[in-house]
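Question (not urgent): is this output format expected?
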Amino acid sequence: MTTSRPQALEGDVPDIDGPVARTASGAVRGLREQGLSVFRGIPFAAPPVGPDRFQAPRPARPWDGIREAYAFGPPPPQEAGLLGRTAQVPFAAGDEWLTVNVWTPDPDPSAARPVLVWIHGGAYKLGHGGQPGYDAQHLARAGDAVVVTLNYRLGMEGFALWTGAPANRGLLDQVAALEWVQENIAGFGGDPARVTVFGESAGAGSIAALLAMPRARGLFRRAIAQSVPGTFFSAELAADIAGDLAAEAGRTPTAADLSEVDPQQLTQAGQTLGAKMPAYTARWGQAAPTAVPFSPVVDGDVLPTTPWEALAAGAARDIDLLVGHNRDEFRLFLLMAGLPGRITDERAAQTLRLYAPGGEAGATAYRSAFPGAGPEGLFERVQTDWLFVIPSLRLAEAQLAGGGRAHVYELTWPAPDGTGTLGACHALDIPLLFGTYGADLGPLLFPGGKPTPEAERLTAFLQHAWPAFARTGDPGWPAYDTDSRPVQILDAEPHVGPYPEEGSRRIWEGYAFGALPLL
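Got this back:
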């Protein structure tokens, strides 16, 4: 079986005698690109369609001969891409949604390089492993590491809770991809004993879930979670949302009924409900204004409990953890929703009461802690904290409570967007880490898609620290503790300092994250 050849990268001529690696399903031929061997679109599981739709992933089908691994596999069904992010690269057609891509300095089985496995974000409803922003060539080359990206089922296919289907199918896909890595990565020059999962936003939430999942134990040695979202659904909330999702498609929330519906039609149903969600606050509480009807479900089986509870009980004490967040996460969403300059005192007050710990008491604490913020600043700050900052910090604290070790960072360097409005916003760490300033959201963050000298220095820092952590468990700064609270500050001049005592951290003191309930 073969796939179509992608457009050649600038400066590369596809080589029909390119590198060959062997997997349990068959041999694959990649391309040699700028000193790396690159393999795209390798199936790690069978297409989840037909009788396999809405079920746990099945083993990949074997093939004879050598399969061309030149093109990214097709993205799984999903909503329209953010700023066109799903339509910027050539990829194969078809239903082989579950594929991996590998960048390696040398597919020599004796090389035993550390392995970094990227789990992309996108609100559990967008994205794929072949996005230009996740081009891993710079990271693999700078870190002398094997880098893997992957696809997993999203939205209705991967995360909606249907009767007759396992919960968290997208997470089960990630487990299957990690099993593929354990079985096959040595043939690409990687060391299966030194596998690090890393991901951002929904990818970091997925990693937090994997740390808590019995099915994922033994599949990775280290984990890097960038901007962990605090949204995990209770089974009751997920079932109620699933009923409305199915109703948008004119169906009942059962795998048998929904399997008759075209995946793209289901995608549209999810998008329609998402737009309505802010009006559902009285029913779905804090989940409603996110306008995202998908999250990992604490179902008691695939995901027995929340990551914070699991880590505090020692579930990941043997896994090295690196976790962090960006200072101004929610500013990106504020801009993309067209809200700058439109947040009233009333709307800010409502948002503070919904998200600040303690309701009105928490709202008062925010106004006191940030006296010059104004309604827009408070609206952004409390959602930054609730959605990303405090969940990330709590994950590190839970790891320590369970007897494990964690390193913590905060990105405070502001995006040079030309307006100064984005600050150290959500997703800024992605182009900095991958060195892909002109891809996906990069042009929004970097005018013309060009890095500043400060950005290049931060990229060099991250492309050293992440592979170093994957190699040894030490990113280059002290492990976190709850007394001195050492944190790596990622700014124009990276430095280690204590996590700030003032502001948000004090307001959230003692707050425990749980699965979001049905009201």
